[in-house]
Amino acid sequence: MAKGHWPMVSQILERMHLAPGLQCLDVGCGNGYAVRAMAQQVQPSGQVLGVDVAPAMIEQAKANPENPPNVAFQVSVADRLPLGDEAIDRILSVEAIYYMPNPLAALKEWYRVLKPAGSVWIMVDFYKENVYSHVWGELVGLPMHLKSERQYRELLALAGFTEVMSKRLFNPEPLDEVCKANFKPGWGYNTIEDVVDFRTRVGSLLLSGKKSALDIPPEI
Ligand SMILES: C[S@@+](CC[C@H](N)C(=O)[O-])C[C@H]1O[C@@H](n2cnc3c(N)ncnc32)[C@H](O)[C@@H]1O
Question: Phi and psi of 93, rounded to 5°?
Fold first, then answer.
């Protein structure tokens, strides 16, 4: 999972303007690879918290011997975070929001914990314009929200975010010959050309938004 997402996540981290001293959060952090990567960029005084609903993922994240001192991991649902208001400068969430029972409630909670001028960065591969992903809900066997790029942008705006932006990210690493030779149909990809199409034309969907520096509540 982590290995597959890293070529895109590294591009997101470049856009997040991470700097020493920033407080960061990864929601649905999985094994914590992105938490560790962010921690390197905000050290020594900046900290990164990774939260995940799955206790097994948090245990795995905590047990990683490469954890630097400025990381913490905690079991938490995305829409009830163990944080006070305006505690966080940057929020990252990779391939997680569509599993959340109420994505809008999660986004509103992320807005609450962000400091004014803080930003949220969300990546999804499961979205309407990626037709290859449409079967994933059935294959995973969990309830998943299939939303379009526009619907995600609207959701971010509804939660109060400004400067809402969306963009596709592409894996710059070429598919190697071994990968091509070992290709087996599955996960919506019937041929190797489908994989190439996803990697070169469809891409991963990145969404971002900012909490206004003036912190005007969304209902005003
Ligand atoms: C596909 S994994 C992605 C993990 C990691 N972000 C990555 O890039 O590999 C989705 C993660 O979201 C977590 N998750 C799902 N629903 C959640 C929720 N409501 N609150 C917090 N985490 C959640 C899952 O436990 C899982 O670890």
Answer: -150, 115
Fold observed for domain 2-173+204-210: Rossmann fold (3.40.50)
Gap from CA of 2 to ligand 1 centroid (Å): 11
Alpha-carbon distance of 1 to 95, in angstroms, equals 10
pTM of this prediction? 0.96
Between strands 204-210 and 162-169, the pairing is antiparallel
* Ligand 1 pocket, Cβ-based, cut-off 6 angstroms: 1-2, 5, 27-30, 52-54, 57, 77-78, 94-96, 99-100
Domain spans in the chain, listed from the N-terminal domain onward = 2-173+204-210
With b for 16 or more beta-carbon neighbours within 10 A and e for fewer, the 126-145 pattern comes to: bbeebebbeebeeeeeeeeb
Q: Which of 79, 95, 142 for mutating ligand 1's site (highest number of atoms within 8 Å of CB)?
A: 95
Give the tens place of pLDDT for each residue, 105-118.
999 999 999 999 99
CA–CA distances in Å: residue 219 to residues 80, 140, 151, 159 = 21, 37, 19, 10
Structure confidence at residue 28 (pLDDT): 98
Instruction: Output the CA 124–ligand 1 centroid distance in Å.
Output: 11
Which atom of ligand 1 approaches the CA of 94 most closely? 6
- The one-letter code for the residue type at 196 is V
